[in-house]
Amino acid sequence: MESPEISQHPAGKLKSLTKGQQAADQLAISQQPIAKSSAAKIFQQPTGKLAATEIAQTPSGQLAILQQATEKLVPAQIRQQAIGKYPFTISWTHYVLLLTIKDPDERSFYEIEATNAGWSVPELKRQKASCLYERLALSRDKEGIRKLAKEGQVIVRPEDLLKEPLVLEFLGLDAQASYSETDLEQAIINRLEHFLLELGKGFLFEARQKRFTFDEDHYFVDLVFYNRLLRCYVIIDLKLDKLTHQDLGQMQMYVNYYDREVKLPEENPTIGLLLCKSAKKTVVELTLPKDANIHAKEYQLYLPSKELLKQKLDEWSAAASR
User: Fold this and answer.
1) Phi and psi based region of residue 53 (left: phi greater than 0; alpha: psi -120 to 50; beta: remaining)
2) How far is residue 204's CA from residue 226's CA, in Å, rounded to a whole number?
3) Looking at domain 166-303, does it have CATH number 3.40.1350.10?
4) C-beta of residue 274 within 8 angstroms of C-beta of residue 296
5) pLDDT confidence band for 31 (50 / 70 / 90)
6) I need a surface site. Which of 32, 73, 109, 317 has the fewest CB within 10 A?
7) What residue spans define the domains of the chain?
């Protein structure tokens, strides 16, 4: 052990400085893609195992690894200098919130979405609280779940828009109180900006209670949107009770009308979306042809249980792997 006198000698100070600089240089290596194996050595634990076999590619993932593995190994000042070299794309407050997410895939997804969609910190908190990642994952296969972590939500086909349930807690409606479909529709119009964010990317609002007429009868579509990414109409019908085959038949008529009378030749087929409290998959499968561009999804007026959604996702993953 060095004596206090030796540590005060210029040579002793130089030795300490050199060690600190070496630690900083090793941390800086972790941001270079070609040096993953070298950077991983920094995070070696006393047992000889690595804390991470591969360095996360997103800044939040790198921050999480640095936070866990270097708190006791590297002085705070050097750690801060190394972290400062990463290409942050959102505010520090965003990253503080992201670091509370333990699952690296989930954390990466929210970071990508917050960057691409320009979410504010309150919006990021809301999307995290509404379990957006789990809700999107439940509508995808295993490959789709992996893409969520690497690319975020990419809209290529109608199924990419879907999530279940849609969370409409921002409408301010009491789930236990009595309200009509008109009340639900009016609440959506009043909070249209929030509803568009919950629907997802690329949605533009066109009309409410859109009327069309044939054979001297009038019909009304609750809500009409256009998705600029898919280049198609998305028509939504609101249902308070469980879904029936009559509801599906009515939506099929609406979709057929828009495809034949409204959409342009260069636009893609219309998507029909039924939002209801209870969507029976068997009724949907038996009523509609397999290639029908109609989807039934449940909504709820309160934030979902993250534990329940994770349990559903685990059960779905186990069933899919059989």
Assistant:
1) alpha
2) 5
3) yes
4) yes
5) very low
6) 32
7) 19-88, 89-162+305-322, 166-303
- Strands (E) across the chain are located at 166-167, 203-214, 217-227, 232-238, 271-276, 294-300
Mind spelling out the 3-state secondary structure of 244-299? CHHHHHHHHHHHHHHHHHHCCCCCCCCEEEEEECECCHHHHHHHCCCCCCEEEEEE
164 within 8 A of 138, measured Cβ to Cβ: yes
Q: What three-state secondary structure class fits 218?
A: strand
pLDDT-derived band at 83 (thresholds 50, 70, 90) equals: very low
Nearest to 168 by CA among 312, 276, 248: 276
Place of tokens 């009308």: 257
**Encoded tokens for 73:** 């190994």
Instruction: Tell me the C-alpha distance between 251 and 235, whole Å.
Output: 9
Amino acid 60: pLDDT: 62
Residue 132 has pLDDT above 90, yes or no: no
Residues 209 and 247 sit within 8 Å (Cβ to Cβ): no
The tokens for 123 are 């919006």
Phi-psi category of 94—alpha, beta or left, where left has phi over 0 and alpha has psi -120 to 50? alpha
Residues in the chain: 322
* CB of 236 closer than 8 Å to CB of 273: yes
Q: What confidence score (pLDDT) does residue 274 get?
A: 92
Q: Is 87 exposed, middle or buried (0-12, 13-18, 19+ CB in 10 A)?
A: exposed
**What mean pLDDT comes out for the span 70-80?**
49
Nearest-Å Rg of the Cα atoms of the chain is 26
Peptide bond into 165 cis (omega under 30): yes
- Asked if the model's pLDDT at residue 236 lies above 80, the reply is yes
Secondary-structure breakdown of the chain: helix, strand, coil percentages, each rounded to the nearest 5? 50, 15, 35
Write the CB contacts of 17 (distance below 8 Å, at least 6 apart in sequence).
Answer: none
